[in-house]
Amino acid sequence: MRSTAKVLVGYSRGPRFRRFGRARRVSGRRGAQQVSDNCTVRERPGDAAAEALLLAGGARAILLQLANPAVGRGVAEHSDFADRPLDRLRGTLTYLYVVAFGTPQEVTRVARQVGRAHAPVRSESHDSDDSYDARDETLQLWVAATLYDTAVLMHELVFGALTAPQAQALLDEGAAIATTLGVPRALWPATPADFAAYWSRCESELRVDDAAARVAAALLHPRSGPWWFRLAMPSVRLLTAGLLSPELRAAYALPLDDRRYSRAVRVLRAVYPRLPRAIRHWPKRHYLRRFRAEAGK
C-alpha cells in the first residue's frame, strides 16, 4: 500500500534554537470545561478514536512532533510530507484506523510497511544531541503521545471531559499505535495520570529550531494541492494556533485571533455532536475499505 509507507511525521539542528520551559496547557483545554449544556451526546468508550473531529487537530500533533529536536531533524532531512500533504494524510489515517479497528493480520501488515519505511531514516552521526533514528523507541513514543494527547484535547473541546472508561479506552488505543511503531508496551503510560506526568516532562524539553519552523510553515501554507485544500488552510491555521500552548505558538510565529477562535469552537460544539454517527465516523469506514480493497489486489 504505497500511501501508508511513510505514515508518521515523526522525525534538528539549526543555527538558532528557541527554547522554553514547561508549556501551559492549551487554551482549548480550558475551554473544554465550559461545553454548552446543550451538547448531551455521549460516546461509548471505544468510539472516540473513530470521530472525524480528531482530524481537526492533526496539524497541532505534527507541530508538537516537530518541536522534539530529533524528530524535527528527521522530518526536515528525510520527509516530503510538506510537499505531499494529502498523500501523507491518507497514509497516516490509514495507519491509525487499521491499528485501531483492523484485524490482527491487518495490523501486522501495516506495521511491517511502516518498519520498512522507517529503516533508512536515521542521521549519519550519533554524536549530536539531536541525532535521530526513526526506529528509536523514545522518539516513536513521543509521536504516538502527540496523537493521543491531541485526540483527547479535541474530544474534550467539543464533547466535554472524557469519562473514566473513555479516557482509558483511548489511552489503550494509543498504546496500540505506539507498540505497532515498535515502542515496548512497558514504556506507554498505564493510566491517564501516568500519561499526564510523561507529557509534562516532555513539554518542558520542546524547542523549535529554524528547520522545524520552515517545515511547519510549508505545511500550514501549502503552495500546491487542490483548491479546496488550500481554501481550508486559514481555518486549519486558526484552530492549530488556538490548540497550541502560548510558548509553541510564539515559537512557530502563529498569530491567534481569540475572537475568531472562540467563535469557531462554539460552532464546533453546537454542530458536530448533532451530526449523524454515519457522518462523524465516515473517515474510519472509508480508509478501512480502501486499505482492504488495495490489500485484495
Describe it:
This protein has 297 residues and is mainly alpha-helical. It is 59% helix and 2% strand. A two-stranded antiparallel sheet has the order 1-2. α3 packs across α9 (210-220) and α6 (137-159) packs antiparallel against α7. The radius of gyration is 18 Å and the shape is globular. Residues 1-45 have low confidence and may be disordered.
Helix/strand layout:
Blueprint: E1 17-19, H1 27-31, H2 58-66, H3 69-78, H4 85-101, H5 104-118, H6 137-159, H7 164-180, H8 192-203, E2 207-209, H9 210-220, H10 227-243, H11 246-251, H12 258-271, H13 277-280, H14 282-295
- Give a quick account of the main beta sheet: strands, pairing sense, barrel closure: 2 strands, antiparallel
Strand order of the largest sheet: 1-2
Structural class: mainly alpha
Name the average pLDDT.
80
Count, helices: 14
Distance between the termini: 10 Å
Q: Which geometry do the CA atoms define?
A: globular
Question: How would you describe this structure in keywords?
Answer:
297 residues, 2% strand, 59% helix, two-stranded antiparallel sheet, mainly alpha, disordered N terminus, 2 strands
Short summary of the structure?
The chain has 297 residues and is an all-alpha fold. The protein is built from 14 helices and 2 strands; from the N terminus they run βααααααααβαααααα.
